[in-house]
Model the fold of this input.
Amino acid sequence: MQKDRKQLKQLVIDNESHRLHLLATPYAVWLYILALIPMILMVGLMFIDTEGVSLADASFTFKNFVYLLEPSIGIAFYNSIKFSFLTTVISLFFGYVIAYSLFKSKIKNKGGILLLLILPMWTNILLRIEALSNLMQPHNIITNLFGIEKGLDILGTDIAILIGLVFTYLPFVILPIYTALEKIDPSLEEAASDLGMTDTKKFWKVIFPLSAKGMVSGSIMVFLPCFSGFAVPKILGGGNILLIGNIIEQNFSNMNYNYGSILAVVILVIILGSILLINKFDKEGETLL
Done:
């Protein structure tokens, strides 16, 4: 009797696994078509000397890698690292303050507040950045509505790009940090209080270390799109400041697929390394979006 129950239970588990596998099949097909195949093509283009997509006179070469040594590439990498780092630090600070304030608040509908905080992620990023670029011009919708003679004039500067990046990616920090805070066992705080810890010590000794997974996940989820993106610096930078994503976009737009592929694969390696780092800190994926 007990053996029959185990067999029945295993049969149910196998059927459920098969059903989930069928549901995931369309996603797997699109993943291969839109991700794996282009990645294989880019790796191949790294070692080919050709113009455009024509393979008629293509030849195997390593000279494409010399492109990585050009000064413009070094400047673009420096700008990407600089803006990504600053955006991550600023977003991490404000994201933690917002997430912790919501976590400690007595608001009943915290889910609704959290929804409002991440709601901008549901809208098109280009529309948000275009609207923000209008506010950074000397004559914009605010100056027109309130009759102000001149507004902000920071479009095309470092501060404009930084504001745009923080504005865009701040929600990516708030949600994983808040998720990590919610998973902290309340009994640990009670035990810390029983040991005579002040609120400040309790935060630094208990809450802050236990929320590290959310901070790491949020940081990487901000750093990577900032490092590889091109829309925000292109719109708010006005072409004055190049990030590595802008150079990749320019290469592919100008049909320099070999050079664009090299840079794209370098970014891909960095992304894969970051994913491995996330898995090390958060193996169950509890804090990921």
User: Anything to note?
Assistant: The domain at 69-281 is CATH 1.10.3720.10 (MetI-like fold). The mean pLDDT is 80. The chain has one domain: 69-281. The two ends are 44 Å apart (CA to CA).
